[in-house]
Amino acid sequence: MKKLAFLILLAACQPKPTVQTIPETGPTGKSAMVASAHPLATKVGVQIMKDGGNAFDAAVAVKFALSVVYPQAGNIGGGGFAVFRMANGSVGALDFREKAPLAASRDMYLDEVGEFTEDLSTIGHQAVGVPGSVAGMWELHQEYGKMEWQSLVQPAIDFAFEGFSLTKNGASILNHYQDEFIEANKYTPWMINKDGWKEGMTVIQRELTATLGFIRDSGRDGFYKGIVGDQLIKEMMRGNGIITQEDLDTYEPVWRDPVVSTYKGHKIIGMPPPSSGGIALAQLLYGAEKFDLGDLSHNSSEYINLMAELEKRVYADRTIHLGDMDFYDTPQSTLLSPNYLDERFDGIAMNSMTSSIEITNGVIPLKESEQTTHFSIVDSEGNAVSITTTLNGSMGSKVMVKGAGFLLNNEMDDFSAKPGSPNMFGLLGSEANAIEPGKRMLSSMTPTIVEKEGQLRIVAGTPGGSTIITSVFQTILNVIDYDMTMQDAVNAPRAHHQWMPDMLYIEKGRLSESLINELEQIGHEINERKYIGKMDCILVRDDATLEGGSDRMRGDSYSEGF
Ligand code: DON
After folding, report:
1. Ligand 1 centroid – CA 444 distance (Å)
2. Which residue from 100, 38, 93 is spatially nearest to 64, judged by alpha carbons?
3. What one-character DSSP code corresponds to residue 99?
4. Are 128 and 38 in contact (CB under 8 A)?
5. pLDDT tops 60 at residue 101
6. Ligand 1 pocket, mutate which of 95, 392, 395, 494 (most atoms under 8 A from CB)
7. Number of other residues whose CB lies within 10 A of the CB of residue 501
8. Which domains does the chain have, with CATH numbers?
9. 463 CA: nearest ligand 1 atom
10. What pLDDT sits at residue 18?
11. What 3 state SS string does 130-188 have?
12. Residue range 45-70: average pLDDT?
C-alpha cells in the first residue's frame, strides 16, 4: 500500500504529458520466455521448452495452439512472417505470407464502371489468398526444429478435442461477427450461436481436431493435399472462390534476408517486403536518431508531433514504393540510404506540422481492428523467434471451410485493388502493390528483433493493421530511450499517423486534455481509438534476465517464463 502511495505521489510530481499508469514489471525468467495473445498458447510454448524444445519448436506449437484458442487471428488459413536470431548472432526471416491465387487478376474487385467493390475483398470466398501458415511452420521446423513435429501439433489437437474456455474478449468477438458468419457461409459453422457466446463457455472443435490430426500425421501435405485440400477447394467452389488445387500444390514459403538497420548503436532486425514493416521501421528510427526524438519529454506534444511528421513521410513512401519484390523492383537500398532519408525528412520542424496533402494526396477512413496476432519467444540457448501472423481482418473472410473447421483469410484486401481507393486499414497503394497472379500482398506486419552490443535485447511485434509499424517503433523507443521495463514500454499510451488520412490517432483516455489541446494547436486533427496495437514482447535485461511484456490491458495477452 505504501509503495502504491509512493508511486502515485511520484507520478503527481512529474510533468504530466500523459495520464499516468503505475509502473509495472512483466513476468521474468532466467532461461526462456514466451509472450503471446492467449495464456493457453503461451503455456504450451513454455511446456515445449521445458521438455527440451527450442524457440522454433515452441513457435510451431504456439502457432497451432493459437489457431484453436484464438480463432479471430491465430490461424491455419492465413499467413505471416517470422524473424529470428540464433544464439550465435546469425539472423534470418521466413515469409509465409498468403499469395494471390493463380486465377486472380488486377481488376478483380472493380465493378463494370471501374469502381472498387470493397466487400468482395473483405468478406466471402473471393477475399481469400492462398494460405501459407502450415507450409511456413513446416519449413521452419524442418530447418530449425529439434523436437518431433507430431508433439508440436498435439497440444492444439488436445484443445480442439477437449475444448477450451472462452475468455470475455473471445466471447465478445464471436458475438460481434454473427451476422457476417451467416452472410459468408453457405452452411452453419460452429461459431454461429443464436443464444450468444459467454465468457467461460467451453468451445469444442471436432472438425478442426481432424484437420490438425492430418497436419500432425502428414505435415504440410496434411493441409494442402488429401482430404483437407479437397475440402478447401470444395469450399471455394461453394462460394465462387478462385483458389484451385494447383494454388495449394505450388504454395511455397520463402527464406528472405532481414532488413538490418541501426538505432543508437543497436542493431534492428526486421522483416523485408512483402512486409513494409522492416523498411518503414528502419526509416522511422533513422529519423528518430537524426532529430534526437528520444531526448524529448516522453509523449509530450513535441514528441508526438515529431513522430507524426516522420510517420507521414514514411507511410507516403510505403504507398508508392513497396510491394512484393518477387514482382516489383522495390528500391530498398535507396529507401534506406542516409542521403535519401536526409532529403526526405528535410523540412520537418519542431512544433509545426506539414499537412499530408503537401507531402502528396488521398482521403480515407480507418477501421479499428487488433486481430492479427504476434508472439515472441526466447529459449534457454538464446535463440529468439518473432512471429506475426494473421487472417487480416478479425476472423478473416468469415468463411469456415466446411468439414475442416478452420477460417480462411481475407488477405486479398491488402493489395491495392485500385490506386487511390483505400483498403480496410485506410492504406493507399500503387502499382507496386497491384494484384497479380501468385503475388504476395503488401503487409505492415513488423516482427522485430533488437540487438545491443552483439547481445539479444528485445523481441517485439503486434497486430494492428497499419498501426503495427508505429506501435513497434514506439515500444522500441520506450525501452532504448526512456529505459522503461518491457511491461511499461508495452503499457505506455500510443499515437499513430499514417500520412493519409491526415489524422493523428491517439488512445482514448490515455493522454491529458492539455496535451490534446497542444496537439490541436499545432494543427493536428485528433481521432481517438480504443487501442492502438497489442504488443507481445520480450526484453533481455542487462543482467540477462528475460522480462515478458504482454498487452494485458489491451487484450488477453500473457507472457510466462522460467
Ligand atoms: O498484413 C497486414 O498488414 C494486415 N493484414 C494485418 C492485419 C492486422 O493487423 C489486423 N489486425 N489488427
Report:
1. 7
2. 38
3. B
4. no
5. yes
6. 392
7. 18
8. 37-103+126-254+397-408 (no CATH), 256-368+445-561 (3.60.20.40)
9. 9
10. 62
11. ECCHHHHHHHHHHHHCCCCHHHHHHHHHHHHHHCEECCHHHHHHHHHCHHHHHHHCCCC
12. 98
User: If you measure from the C-alpha of residue 526 to the centroid of ligand 1, how many angstroms do you get, rounded to a whole number?
Assistant: 22
What is the rounded CA–CA span in Å between residue 220 and residue 229?
Answer: 10
Number of helical H runs and strand E runs in the chain: 20, 19
8 A C-beta contact, residue 52 and residue 551: no
The mean pLDDT of 369-388, rounded to a whole number, is 93
R_g over Cα of the chain: 22
Q: Is the pLDDT of residue 465 over 90?
A: yes
Span from the CA of 329 to the centroid of ligand 1 (angstroms): 23
Ligand 1 environment, Cβ below 6 A: 369-372, 390, 392, 411, 414, 443-445, 463-465, 468
Q: Which of 372, 390, 446, 462 is catalytic?
A: 372
pLDDT of residue 15: 44
What pLDDT is stored for residue 369 in this prediction? 59
pLDDT tens for residues 337-357? 999 999 999 989 888 888 888
Name the amino acid, one letter, at 184.
A
Q: What is the mean pLDDT of the chain?
A: 93
**What pLDDT does 12 receive?**
39
* Secondary structure, 3-state, 297-351: CCCCHHHHHHHHHHHHHHHHHHHHHCCCCCCCCCCHHHHCCHHHHHHHCCCCCCC
CB 371 within 8 A of CB 394: yes
206-218 vs 149-162: helix axis angle to the nearest 10? 170
Q: Is pTM beyond 0.90 here? A: yes
Instruction: Please state which of the ranges 226-235, 417-426, 535-544 shows the lowest mean pLDDT.
Output: 417-426
